[in-house]
Design goal:
445 residues; Helix Hairpins; Heat Shock Protein 90; alpha+beta; 13 strands; Beta-Lactamase
Length: 445
Amino acid sequence: MRLPNTLFARTSLTISGALLVFILFTGFVVLNYMLLPVARQSAGDLAALMVLSAKTWVELPPFAREDFQQELRSSHDLILNPEPPKGDLEPLLLHSPYMLFLEEALSNRMNRPLHIHQTTATPDLYWAILPVADKRLYISIDHDHIGAEPPRAVVAILLGASLFILLTTLLVVRRITRPLETLSYGVKRLGSGGQHQPLPEDGPRELAELARKFNQLSNEIRQLLENRTTLLGGISHDLRTPLARLRIAVELLQGKEDAHLLNNMQQDMEEMDDLITRTLELARMMQEDEVPAEAVNLAALLKEIGASYSNEGKLLEIRVESPCTTVVNELILRRVLGNLLDNAFHHAGEKAVTLHLRYTENKAEICILDQGSGIPEDQLDKVLQPFYRLDPSRNRGTGGSGLGLAIVQQLAQLQGWRVTLGNRPAGGLSACLEIPDATYDAGAS
């Protein structure tokens, strides 16, 4: 027989089975080491009373025997008769442990095998035939006199405990598995492409944390799918413009040679190549695993980057407010700062750009400050998305490819960094990169 292949059924059966085995073991211990010894002692005491009563009755004068019999009945619920009861006495066919102990105790005290009998006329009475002197005395006890019934007690305990265990197990397991069933349904719905409904983040701490992580993962997957759609839409839109220009140029060049048109075609092809390169770069960044890191002197790095831009004729000012060192991948950090600086110079025109470093609360903050026109407040977060441009015409001359800041955002998230954009009060944009776990370096230059 196969177990039901559900977590609820298997967990319920496992817990119930284990607890039932424990209850059976407990019942066995209680029966053998508590109930049966008590029953044996009680049967021995009753057997001693019965034998003593029979011997006392024989030694009493005839006129006192009836009073003694009445005293036994009223005080000890024992019926003593010198005559056999009505009906045929038959030995017990089924013995309870108490009756076995009573027979054993009577046999030991009388030094001969004795049995407990019943009659059809009085089924609630148990009779013992005691040979004393030259007489056979008949002593009976009522069924209610026994009182304790170990087998029934054990069976009642087992049944009650089994019912309690079953109900408790079903309740506990249901409370555990219900959130998992909800999670399973959410995963199935997410895998089938359906609209994700956030899971309730309640219940036990572990399950609430699991639901929170699933909701977070679902949102990230949804964002990834949206980015993919944006990526494909941006590529198709941006490639269409240079392709259209190339098509027109080819038609115009038929039968003649025009240096200006050829130069435009060359620029269009370079534009397409740059777009494809940046798109592939973004795709790689979204799949990039952990990369090796090393301790980097940020002040020295910024001065090196500033020197390279100055050699290109760019106006870049370096400000090191508090030098610090941090463990990062230098190539990725250079790429992020390079994209931010290129974006700043693109919008600043001929004006200077400031590269500012400061250390605060175990974090390094590198800010690129330009003097351009800034970004509308409601679009500060959107410009970090792939192919988003402030210029609605998507003109490459004014808006770029729309991938520079998206690459910065992806790289920063992969490294555990934080990128924030904000408009400066005096005009221009402030793009800050926050790197955690930095160390202040007073000796850095």
